[in-house]
TrEMBL record:
Keywords: Calcium, Disulfide bond, Membrane, Metal-binding, Secreted, Signal, Transmembrane, Transmembrane helix. It holds the Pfam family Pentaxin. Homopentamer. Pentaxin (or pentraxin) have a discoid arrangement of 5 non-covalently bound subunits. Residues 42-242 form the Pentraxin (PTX) domain. It is found in: Secreted. This is Pentraxin family member. Disulfide bonds join C73-C132. It comes from the Eukaryota. Its cofactor is Ca(2+). The lineage of its organism: Eukaryota, Metazoa, Chordata, Craniata, Vertebrata.
Length: 247
């Protein structure tokens, strides 16, 4: 019997073998799919319940290196009508190395190495909001996206990288490295889907993030990595709503 006839004979003798292997392959793919789906939908929200100078969350970058480029994206829900900090990075020499600082009702400040750029934005409303900021130190190009809309781009005079040593804080605006908080600049409300990259995300990815963040995780700070610690009464809650936004 030649090799071809032998193979045909094997297939005849084991007609269910191929079907069994195919079922097993599909079952494994199903398990992988379910695992990815569940991971993407295990929602959590950080709640800052009241105005204080103590409640905050410390985020821990996965690596320590200077940032020549960055993108930060997050979702927020607040009814604050005063200035407040959404995302704060301080270094030992700069308290506002990077800061996203909404100034309701129609302005948002972004700080880069102490330099502030103010954007005129749509009026604030009490609803979930997605904010992304991207910056490139080589060109100084600064972008602000809110709910999938990119506002007119600006250029910073600063061309210096940020870091490498940095303190990353949610809920408070840092006036020193990791401290000197002011309750009147604190965030009150809910935050989720907080991610940071050490490069500028392309517009199509930011648009994808707005519609669904399930499969997006920052390489510098990743929401799924759980590298954070909460202080004071800031609470990390399991909540599916943020994962489902903006259905």
């Amino acid at each position: 019997m030649d090799r071809t006839e032998e193979l045909r004979s094997t297939e005849v003798e084991d007609p269910g073998g191929h079907l069994h292997r195919e079922i097993r392959r599909l079952f494994l793919l199903f398990l992988i799919f379910c695992g990815c789906f569940l991971q993407g939908n295990l929602g959590k929200i950080i709640l800052f319940p009241k105005e204080t100078s103590t409640d905050h969350v410390i985020l821990k970058p996965t690596v320590e290196r200077p940032l020549k480029q960055l993108t930060v994206c997050l979702r927020s829900y607040t009814d604050l009508s005063r200035d407040h900090s959404l995302f704060s990075i301080a270094t030992p020499t700069m308290d506002n190395a990077f800061l996203i600082f909404p100034q309701p009702p129609k302005s948002c400040g972004v700080y880069i190495n102490q330099e502030v750029i103010s954007f005129n934005v749509d009026p604030e409303v009490a609803a979930w909001k997605q904010t992304c900021v991207a910056w490139d130190s080589e060109t100084g190009l600064l972008q602000l996206w809110i709910n999938g809309k990119r506002y007119p781009r600006r250029v910073t005079t600063s061309r210096s990288p940020i870091g490498p040593q940095m303190s990353v804080i949610l809920g408070q605006e840092q006036d020193s490295f990791g401290g000197r908080f002011d309750a009147k600049q604190s965030f009150v409300g809910e935050l989720c889907d907080i991610n940071m990259w050490d490069y500028v995300l392309p517009p199509e990815t930011i648009t994808q993030y707005f519609h669904s963040s399930h499969n997006i995780n920052g390489n510098f700070i990743g929401w799924n990595n759980e590298l954070y610690s909460s202080k004071g009464n800031a609470k990390v809650l399991k909540d599916e709503f943020c994962s489902l936004y903006p259905v």
